[in-house]
Amino acid sequence: MAVKVFIHGLESSGQGAKGQFFREHYPDMLIEDYEGPFDARMAKLNLLLDGKDDLILVGSSYGGLMAAVYTGQNPQRVKKLILLAPALLLPEFNPYRSTRLALPVVLYHGRRDDIVPPGLTREIAEGVYANLTCHAVDDDHSLHATFEGMPWDRLLEP
User: Fold this and answer.
1) Which residue among 13, 128, 135, 143 is the one 20 to 30 A from 119 at the CA level?
2) Mind giving me the DSSP string for 37-91?
3) Cα pseudo-dihedral 34, 87, 99, 95, rounded to 10
4) pLDDT single digits (tens) 16-59
């Protein structure tokens, strides 16, 4: 059985709107709070996922960066990656930009995102993920108007 994981963004927490939505609709989903610098956040994520396989990772913004880096380090353990306006342009993702991964990846990004540039993010993702599905939506960085209406049951299928 797949293990579903939600990773929140830099200024958010597992108690934010997305975390609350997932807790209500997918009570088996692993949702933690991540604080501090990138390395500390990744150490906590690695500890949480230690020994787990068949992962479906959902990462939002900075959490999308974390999910993408984790996948780059552990591609055999991740079954599916769902990225919500991921911060792939940050230097922490640079070591993985020359890799080519075949797992299914779904990218949602608001066209009105003024924090993470959607065009550049899509370009980076297209270079790394061979099985990428992109959705450019009429929304902002947080995907406030889009998030709850996304087809989550289908997205979270392995």
Assistant:
1) 13
2) SHHHHHHHHHHHHTT--SEEEEEETHHHHHHHHHHHH-TTTEEEEEEES--TTSG
3) -70
4) 999 999 999 999 999 999 999 999 999 999 999 999 999 999 99
